[in-house]
Amino acid sequence: xxxxxxxxxxxxxxxxxxxxxxxxxxxxxxxxxxxxxxxxxxxxxxxxxxxxxxxxxxxxxxxxxxxxxxxxxxxxxxxxx
Length: 81
Fold this sequence. Notes:
The chain is mainly alpha-helical. The chain has helices at about 1-15, 35, 50-75; strands at about 35-40, 45. Strands 1-2 form a two-stranded antiparallel sheet.
């Protein structure tokens, strides 16, 4: 997952896109793992119901953070206006 995250971040950067990395932003940690991830049969790990809600909140916050600079830039008048 770390290699995929790194590759996606590099591709987004090369294109000038924002990138949200749950890995580098530590959305899931040792401390919250059991409340975020449902421990099912061996090899099957998936967000729990509470985990989905938590990850959705984190995603909304991250999207807002990405959008704020873009909105501010769009609202700034061009020089001389």
